[in-house]
Amino acid sequence: MIVDTETIDEFLARHASDVEEAVRQAAAQEIMPRWRTLAAHEVDQKNGPHDLVTDADRRAEQYLTEVLGALLPGSVVVGEEAVHADPATYGAIQGTAPVWIVDPVDGTRQFVHGVPGFCTLVALVQGGELLASWTYAPARDQLATAIRGQGAYLDGERLHTGVPEPGRDLRVATSHPDYTTDEQKHALRGVWADGVAPRACGSAGLEYLAIARGELDAVAFSWEAAWDHAAGLLLVEEAGGAHLTLTGEPFRVTGGNALPFTAARDAATASRVRELLRRGPA
């Protein structure tokens, strides 16, 4: 079993391109052939009409589970659909083995409605530390990657979050209030403030990519499912950004975070959004 960081680094040096190819192939074989061609029987609800799953989600996750597990012996795959079927499998994130965290189709609602705002997310984590990530938007043919300590890239070009333009309202994407507790609703209303231009979020993975590209200033999210956040948080970090929970600590993929939390293009913006969340509406 691979357990030490040095060996993981060696694995990534040898096989990062193989992971990229696996992500592309999952999309090419299982996702894109079903985009805009889904039949009614290929779409199901998980936890209500806004929480959808399709045959593309299931088949792409199965493909990635097989390929990624074979690439890194001793690793474990934690996928969104597998956890829905057996919630106990989520606990592997707390263990010592390397873990692949997979969201086969992030933005399933957009995928079902035939719009291009969806992506495939893969992150490699060990002992709660984010080590590498892949964010692939197949309808746009955009691939963003990050390896801890080596930077973030989009289609081979280095990403830098930059800083907000002086005098411009902060652009912040937020959780939809329908999926929050009353306490979280109160906190999220804090970003409806002077100098902030909030909007509802789309695919979490693509919102993180927008921060890494310097197109979005921050997100304010109220849930902590690792498959939605792991890949994007590392991408933002390696592009120069930061993330904070309500108590001022960095977000932990292992859970137990004080929510809502923010990820932002720089530490100052993260602190500002966190303070708005902590304070709530004026």
Automatic annotation (TrEMBL):
It comes from the Bacteria. It catalyses: a myo-inositol phosphate + H2O = myo-inositol + phosphate. Keywords: Hydrolase, Magnesium, Metal-binding. GO terms for biological process: inositol metabolic process; phosphatidylinositol phosphate biosynthetic process; signal transduction. The keyword Hydrolase applies. It holds the Pfam family Inositol_P. Its cofactor is Mg(2+). Mg(2+) binds at E80, D103, D106, D228. Its EC number is 3.1.3.25. Gene3D superfamilies: 3.40.190.80, Fructose-1,6-Bisphosphatase, subunit A, domain 1. InterPro entries: Inositol_monoP_metal-BS, Inositol_monophosphatase-like, Inositol_monophosphatase_CS. The keyword Cell inner membrane does not apply. GO terms for molecular function: inositol monophosphate 1-phosphatase activity; metal ion binding. PANTHER family: INOSITOL MONOPHOSPHATASE, INOSITOL-1-MONOPHOSPHATASE-RELATED. This is inositol-phosphate phosphatase. It comes from Streptomyces cupreus.
